[in-house]
Amino acid sequence: MRKIVILVIILLMTPFLCHADTDNGVDGYSRTGAPPQQTLSQIPAQNGTDQTSEDIDGQQAYYLGVKAYNEGNYSEAVKQLSIAATSELTAENKKNVLIYQGLSYYQMGIASYNSGDYPVAIKQLGTALKFKLDDATVAWIKYYRGKAYYATGDNNKAVTDLRAAITKFPNWAMAYYIRGNAYFANGSYSLAEKDYASAIGFLTNNKAENTYADFAGWLKGYASNAVSNGQTAEMSLLAACYGGIGGVHMLQGFNDKAVKDFSNELAIKPQSRFAYFCRGKANLKLNKYPEAINDLTHAETLGEKSEELYLNRCSAYFKFGKYDNAKADIDKVIAMNPKNIAAYYIRAEAEMKMLNMNKAAINDYTIFINAKPNIIPAYLHRGICYLRAREDVKGLADINHAIEMDPEYPEGYYLRYQYYGMIKHDTDLAMKDYERYLELEKAMNSAQKKQMAEDIAIAMALYFDHFNDGI
After folding, report:
1. Sign of dihedral through CA atoms 219, 224, 228, 231?
2. What span, in angstroms and rounded, lies between the C-alpha atoms of 457 and 186?
3. pLDDT, tens digit, 9 for 90 and up, residues 411-463
4. What is the dihedral of CA 52, 56, 61, 63, to 10 degrees?
5. Which helix (H) or strand (E) segment is 375 a member of?
6. Contacts of 71 (CB under 8 A, 6+ apart)
7. Do the beta carbons of residue 380 and residue 399 sit within 8 Å?
8. pTM higher than 0.90, yes or no?
9. Hey, which CATH number is domain 1-168, 3.90.1200, 3.30.70, 3.30.450, 1.25.40?
10. At what angle are helices 307-319 and 341-353 packed, to 10 degrees?
11. 3-state secondary structure of 26
């Protein structure tokens, strides 16, 4: 009995304060489900002097549970409050016990989420939802569980939980952003676009909810660089939303919109290599090759050194006629991943365009053909390089093989016409192939004609190079 009196005296010296954790959006009953403010001395005794030892143990567990909760020791709070829940308490105290149990599981779930243990967070937050908490707290719980589901790749459940959170707080920009990410991951691009746009609208019009509480974890991630450079967390979220909607627009084929989106992101976060990288890809698809090269080079300077970056910049250089730069980039791709067979074909194409690297191009085409023996242009282009390297027999063999693979492939006949007419001076064979080429050329689409025109331009150099080394 003396121990209980001492415990009560100690607890009476510590105010019973509602949990205040602005990092996690918890600052009182109106938002978290915590009981109204009171002190332990205000919690009534059980039935005057008629209390049993079990009643006293229950009250002690209640006091210890509340104390542990206020100290942030949530696992101990759950333990003590579970004991209290099976004891004879007043209806008010029993209600408070259940509220504190739910809040303890909620806080444990947040801690697990922040530590990256998402399956445990999902379980703990699910347990918290079994207790009767106020609507605002339920919204926060579902928000965190939605984020945990998203982190584990369960995007459908993430969408469901985040929808519930948004129902309670319709202007919750971060919830829209994460739900947009879940929609994006599921391939629901129009829904993702709508959520990103909603978040952007709230943030740009100063109508976003819960940002004061929700950015503590955010500051540890995406926003860290921006905040260190004087940007607010809200602005960093806005930048991320522009990046998200830009990604949607790229996938939808609206690359002009995507360029504007990534430009908006860079206006907020000018050191975002992701934004430069994506804007570079969008500019490439818009055939804005200098802009694409500039953006991709910025991304590289900021640390983006992926195969994808070098492949995209190689393509921009190639289409801009900078074949030596294109080769330099594809060299990096092959050094990073020697098993990328397509890279050998791309390098061979650049080497063929450079006109003085026939042997190198032949070697790369051969590597590609050995791995992918059914690609007709590879044989035709290797054939061109063989002819330019004065290996006529091998060159003609490649062109003949391409024609055998597809007797209606017009470029093969045109190249053989060039060979017979310009190199062998056999007018009869040349005209026979030329007539066949004209017949087939009528059925070609504009893209095929454009590609063939490029190859023909190279073929026209055969006659002038044939009596030189051309190596």
Report:
1. negative
2. 45
3. 899 889 988 988 888 999 999 999 998 888 887 777 777 776 766 665 555 44
4. 150
5. none
6. none
7. yes
8. no
9. 1.25.40
10. 20
11. strand
